[in-house]
Specification:
single chain, about 400 residues, alpha+beta, four-stranded antiparallel β-sheet, two-stranded antiparallel sheet, 7 helices, 8 strands, about 60% helix
């Protein structure tokens, strides 16, 4: 500080300068409580960010599995279209030779049209799942790309065009046709495509089971719950928030107490008289900031905030238990269902093969053939959907355990 008090009398003048220092010595832990409160608030915010990242990762994984499922259903739809194409060609040839009725030929045309529509719908659904995946990754104007299978969603080794395998060879049917007197000039029906050998049967399959290996997670409910208690960032955020409220209450209670400070100063004065200087020090007890009623309400508010934080912590702990329980039950049930659906696809395929053979030799009608084809198609679609549901349930369990 520099002072100039002006001129007094003739030539009397003086200059004075001084410096002082004030240091808080003790405030009964109020500063420490404030520091800890802000520290716990920062920790809580960091866990909130981690939980947001966890939810974002789940959204991406969910969309990713949706693309895999949609692509598998496109392959199933392609297989179904190929089946209907070849059945149409077969029945058309039989109809022209008088071996099958016109109603079978018309129904084959309808089935072919329906399978074309279903393939378009499956391809549209696949494109929509790609859009959803891009959206979950916040990627606009994404270039064309393909995705790989995961360990728990490995219906095929890679997502190339589907290959249809020849699973039937009805030479007996050809022999029966050639033996017939009224159809002795009928040529065997052979069809060749780029994806299959010369076929005498119109029954083909998209072998979605060939490369699929299912491995259950192998985790008990108690283990999952323990991992959730240790790993859930939102639980840790509520815990940090509770600790912050505890420090806030400590601070509010200590506002009843004064601040103790130390003060020291040094002053120098120069004038016509001899130069003088002085040094002073002392301690102060600050009671000016104490407002008893205001502090009381702050303490009451801090207690309420702490009660809310404790209740939130109690609720999140229960919610975690129920989330883990729900996700775990769903995952385990689907783990049990997948082998059954897998077997169902195999059984439906075998039934379809038998129905195709019976229809070819006239032992069954077109309705039985199409029922078996529909059962095979539905079995494949439900199998893919079950695998998708399992992966979603598994991802939900991972989120419930606080894992990405």
């Amino acid at each position: 500080m520099w002072n100039n008090d002006g001129i007094s009398g003739g030539n009397d003048y003086y200059y004075a300068a001084g410096v002082s220092l004030k240091q808080l010595i003790f405030n009964f832990g109020k500063t420490n409580a404030q520091i800890k409160m802000q520290k716990f608030n920062k920790i809580s915010a960091e866990f909130d960010l981690e939980y947001t990242n966890l939810k974002t990762a789940y959204d991406v994984k969910s969309a990713y599995y949706g693309v895999l499922a949609a692509k598998a259903l496109v392959d199933v739809a392609k297989s179904n279209l190929e089946i209907n194409k070849r059945q149409y060609e077969q029945i058309k040839a039989y109809f022209e030779e008088g071996l099958k009725s016109r109603i079978d030929f018309v129904n084959a045309e309808v089935n072919l049209s329906n399978s074309q529509i279903e393939l378009i719908a499956a391809q549209t659904a696949y494109e929509n799942t790609l859009i959803k995946l891009n959206n979950s990754m916040y990627v606009a104007y994404a270039p064309a790309y393909s995705i790989k299978n995961t360990e728990s969603f490995n219906l095929k080794e890679d997502w190339t065009d589907v290959k249809f395998l020849n699973i039937g060879n009805y030479k007996k049917l050809e022999e029966e046709i050639n033996k017939s007197d009224d159809t002795k000039d009928v040529e065997p029906l052979n069809y060749t495509t780029a994806d299959s050998p010369t076929l005498t049967s119109k029954v083909e399959k998209n072998d979605i089971l060939e490369n699929y290996v299912f491995k259950p997670l192998g985790l008990s409910f108690e283990e999952a719950l323990d991992r959730a208690r240790d790993g859930r960032p939102d639980f840790k955020s509520y815990l940090a928030a509770k600790e912050a409220m505890e420090e806030a209450l400590k601070y509010a209670k200590k506002e009843y107490l004064p601040d103790i400070s130390a003060q020291a100063g040094y002053t120098i004065r120069e004038s016509d008289a001899p130069t003088s200087n002085s040094f002073n020090y002392g301690a102060t007890l600050d009671l000016s900031s104490i407002n008893i009623m205001k502090t009381k309400y702050k303490v009451d508010e801090a207690k309420t905030q702490l009660d809310i934080a404790e209740e939130n912590l109690n609720l999140i702990e229960k919610n975690i238990f129920f989330e883990v329980q729900d996700a775990y039950i769903n995952m385990v049930q689907l783990e049990k269902q997948i082998p059954l659906y897998q077997k169902r696809v195999q059984q439906a395929l075998e039934n379809f093969e038998l129905a195709d053979g019976r229809y070819g030799v006239g032992l069954s009608d077109f309705i039985e053939l199409q029922d078996s084809r529909s059962q095979y198609l539905n079995a494949q679609q439900e199998y893919v959907q079950t695998i998708y549901n399992y992966n979603i349930a598994k991802s939900k369990l991972e989120v419930a355990m606080g894992e990405i």
